[in-house]
Structures are given as C-alpha cells and as structure tokens.
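Build the 3D complex.
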Amino acid sequence: MKATFKQEWKASKSRILYTSLVIAIVLLGAALTNFIAFQTKSNHVTFFGMFMYSVGIFCTLAIPIYALVRGSGNLRPLLFSDTNYLMLLVPEHSYTLLLAKQLINLAEYLIYVIPAAFYLSFMGPTAGLSMHTTLNGILYNANPGSTYWESVKSIYKYVFVDNWAGVLQLLVMAIIMFAVLQAAINCAYALYSAFIHTKRPNKFLILVILFFLFYIPIRLGFLGIDQVKYQIQNLNSAVIFWNYIWRFAVFGAVYFFLTGWLMENKIEV
Amino acid sequence: MEPILYVNGLQKRYGTKPALVNISLTLEPGRILGLMGPNGSGKTTFMKIAAGLQKESGGTVHICGNQVGIESKKLVSFLPDRNIMPRWMTAEDAIDYYHDFFTDFDIHKALEMLDFVRLEKNVPVSAMSKGMVEKLNLTLCFSRKAKLYLLDEPLGGVDPVARERIVSTIVQTYNPESSIIVSTHLVHDIEHMFNDVCFISNGEVLLYGNAEQLRAERGMDIDALYIQMFRDRS
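Done.
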C-alpha cells in the first residue's frame, strides 16, 4: 500500500503543482482585481473585475470535474492505453491499487479545493460588484456599511464560528460524494473494459454505462429530497442530508468492490 | 523438484476465435525455452496469461505450484514487447518503481546494467528511442531474482549491437534455480542458448522438445527446422 501511494504521488505531483499554480494565479488575480475595483470604485476596473469574478467562480466549479477527469484516480489510461499496464504486473491486489489511486485523487481534489475556498473568501466581500454598473455607482457588498477586511472577517466568523458543525459536515459530505463519483466513473470504465472492450474506448457507451450507474442511486438517494428545502434553516441543518448521502455511499462502495473484482477476474490488457 | 511452470490443457478464446488450443508443457528449473512461431501464433497471449495480464479460458497454469495471481506475480519477471512505462518516468524512476514493488529487485544490479547498456538515468521515457526503451525494459526485467523470466520478442526492433548485448544479458542471467521463456521469430540469433523449443502456430503446439535432441534427430539446426515447419503454413 505504501509503495502504491508513493508511486501514485510521484505520478501526480507535477500535475497537481502546475494545476494548483494556475488556480492560485486565476483566483488570486480575480480577488486582487475585485479588491482594487472595490476600493477605487472604478467602473473600468469593475468591468474587468466582473469578468474575473466569473472566471474565478467557473474555475472553482471546474476543479472537481478536472480532478475527476484528469486525476490519478482515473482508470482510463490503465485500461485503454496500449502501454501503461505496468501497474497490473505488480504483486498487489487490485483493491489496494484502486484504493491508493482514489485516495491520492481525493487528496488532489482537496489540494485544489481548500486553497480555492481560501482565495474565494477574499472575493466574497466584492460579490456586490457585479451589480455596480447597473445601480449607478452604488456599491453592494456582503456586509453593507462594513469595510473589505471586516467583510472577510465576517465570512470566516460565519463559516468557522457560527456554522462550524454544518460546514464540517458539508465538507465530509462533499468528500463522500467525490469518492462516489470516482467509484462510479472507474466502475463504468471497468464494466466497459471487461465486457465490451475495444482498442479505443467508445465515450458514448461509457457515458451510457455511467448514466445507469448514477440513475439508481440518484433515484434512491433523492427519495424524499423535495422535503428538504422546507427544513433547512442554516448551514447547521446540513445534518438532514446524511439520510441521502449514506445511500450514495453504499452504492459507491458497491461500485468500488465491483471495479476491484472486475480488475482481478475479468479485465485483460 | 517442483517445476517452475506447469501448463495443462491451456485454452484461450477471444470471443469465438481460439487463440490458444490445449497447450500443455512443463518447464523445469534451469531451462531456457524458446517459444517460436510466426506473428499471431499465440506467443504473446501465452506470455500474458503466465504473467497474469490475461485470463485463461480453460486449463491450468501453475508457477512454482501457485495459480496465476498475486503470488505468481512475485515470481515472474515479464519483459513485454513494447513500452509499458508511463511516459513521464525516467530510467531512475522506473528502477525506483520496481524496487518499491518487487522484493527480489536488485537495485545495484539495475544501476550496473544501465551503465552496461549505456542508458542515461535521467532521460524520460517520452524521449527514449525504441531501442532505449528495450534496454530499460531489459534492465528492469533482469534486475529481479525471479523464478521465471518471460521475454516477449526481446530482439524485435533492435540493432545488431544491442541484440548482442541482449543475448549476453540473457545468458548471464541464467541460473539453475530459475527458468527463462523467450518468444521470438528471429530464431537464428538466439537458438544456441535454448535447452528446449516449442513451435506454436494458430494457438496450437506443433513441436515441443529438447533442442539438442531435435537437432540430432532432424539433422538440422533449429533455425532450419523452423523455416521448414512454417514455410508451408505461411
């Protein structure tokens, strides 16, 4: 297990470093631009700031997708490349290899997301800038009447003091859902590789498999979800989501073990 | 003594197409077996099944008494006929990888072999020529103290000088406790080191026996015998 971790990390570290640098440059750039716009109330900079704000939000939303598609947890290069089957020659159980891959991928996701959340916290007070031009110079920020730094402070107070239990639970839920997504994507690749296998993967068929892998847990996972909106009062109310998250977690575990079994018994390279 | 490799009634089908048909052979320690046949005859499939990369459709394969799986992978050193290294790895990274996963990997021997084959440690696989990848694969394969070495077309696509080095590496690696299977259709270059030969065509064994006995019985060397057997089939 230790060797698998080490080698997975070696294989991923330069991609993680470069991607982290890009995220830092984009988000810190967006935060700085918006900070200048906020302080100077310049329409010109504000327009650019609005653009950077959108880029920053997009960047944050794209991180989990990027980590999943390009991340080390993805089995695609192992199963569909003519080369790269080195990993299948080593005397390790497929479950160990898969677990190490997915844990490093999860670490990759956190390495992207936690700093991104930190950078975004500096954009929070300037969120009202998007309305700046339409409201004729009247600035809206997260905390009307407070300074930029007071607003930043209030964001951290809201997250880490007033709602820490809810935030912690949401973080754990995000991790679980990320792991479920990983397991489902790898399971789709493994099912395709085991039963259809073509030299070049048919993306459409893999997407169809993925759809079915998600369809059942989504149907089961969200049974009764329409009642949730009436119960949420604040972030600490997140506890009610557990009822749905564990259903996804069960399916994630089933997909993980199915993938491992397929790797050991069905998949050939 | 327990055989290194015991194969009984091995079958492999790709869909309905048979790739291996009822292959049976036993390899004792200290033997070098030449697995010969034209392209598409089933040599690589056989190697991959023994290495644990493919599953048999029927029959049994045992390596030192173990069914093919985690335990057998500890005993088998496989030299593939292509690059299987991630392109970002350097020769040094590849050595580190093998050192981490195979307890029988001799890192000092690997570094010596890199010098011997004149391969730079810091060159990434993406910048290596086919011959350089071949040398790296060979270094990794033979730096293990494995029981069974599976060499899939080790001479394919390399120049005569490199070929000579590969042959001498194989001979140096020989030890009475392990066995080597070499698949090739370049028979002439390496026939002198085979103890046993197995001719395979369309997944079936055409001829299997002691190389010396076959030379004496047929009055020709293995290369000539190979040409005679496969001339009418191609």
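The radius of gyration of chain A is 22 Å.
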